[in-house]
Amino acid sequence: METTLPIAKLLARYGIRPTKRLGQHFLVDRRYLDKIVQTHELSDVKTILEVGPGPGNLTELLLQTGAGVLAVEVDARFVRLLDDRFAGRPDFTLCQTDILQSGELNPRVISTLQESWEKGWALVSNLPYQVATTVIVEMMYLPVMPKVMCVTIQKEVARRLLGRPGSKDYSALTVLVQSFASVQLVCTVPSGAFWPRPAVDSATVKIVPKRESGIKAPQHLRKMVNLMFRHRRKTLRSGFLKVLPEEQKLQAEKAFQQLGTDPSARAEQLEIGDFIGLSNTMLELGVNFSIGG
């Protein structure tokens, strides 16, 4: 059975050449596309957000799930192609814009999504490499998170999402996502499954938000974690605590003492629960990271 879709012919018809600047490497191998849409959580959502649909190979399969698809595409060339391919379908909405604006989720996209929040929604995408980490993290801080995210991303980013304490892959990204959600590897995706072929392999991961995270103030946690990993190779005492204003430092040290967390450890040695506990306790003690962490 042929598994590669005839994307080259389709793009040639529209005079389109993929743009490296936009990270346009399209997943065309049907075997891997099927693994994405077989995510069982999709049966519970009414709207699927797809970022960077390109020629619409994944879009076509997502529409077969019965959910409506909100496709966000910044490239006007593909907007024309997608219009031709799916025009007139009531379950397809095309938004010509960038998913990010000033490093955050585009308000226009959020506004469109809000109509679907109560009914349930998901993010399912072959995410462009250059926006993948930002998009994933920003999704964690929306008032209503997606029921599931199933995304194909660079393999290196997938390793960081799946990281464990003490490993080289354990990072701020790991903590910011795993604090809110469970992360599961769906499959690794070889570079040959894309057209044009990227220089690196990819992976598809499934991210499912937890019912209860125990986090009192998500943005407080976010600032704290970013500040702790800013000095990754230093201990928390010589990096994180040292840069805090004196009064905040004293209160932060009190939080470490109350929780029995050793400040001579490095951030990469803490468990997810340690970060959540420290954030909640520091919040109660008035540590607000006003220095911009």
Describe it:
- The chain has 293 residues and is α/β, with parallel strands linked by helices.
- The chain folds into 2 domains: 203 residues, Rossmann fold; 67 residues, rRNA adenine dimethylase, C-terminal domain (Helicase, Ruva Protein, domain 3).
- It is 35% helix and 18% strand.
- The chain is built from 11 helices and 11 strands.
- A hairpin with a 2-residue loop joins strand 5 and strand 6.
- Helix 9 packs across helix 11 and helix 10 packs across helix 11.
- The relative contact order is 0.11.
What are the salient characteristics of this protein?
2 domains, two-stranded antiparallel ribbon, alpha/beta, Rossmann fold, Helicase, Ruva Protein, domain 3, 11 helices, 7-stranded mixed sheet
Main sheet: which strands, in order across? 4-3-2-7-8-11-9
Main β-sheet, in a few words?
7 strands, mixed
CATH H-level superfamily of the largest domain? Vaccinia Virus protein VP39
Helicity level, as a percent range?
A: 25-40%
Strand residues, percent:
15-25%
- Along the chain, the helix and strand elements come as HEHEHEHEEEHEHEHHEEEHHH
Shape call = elongated
Oligomeric state = single chain
**CATH fold group of the largest domain:** Rossmann fold
Low-confidence stretches: none
User: Would you identify the CATH architecture of the largest domain?
Assistant: 3-Layer(aba) Sandwich
What structural class do you assign from the helix and strand content? alpha/beta
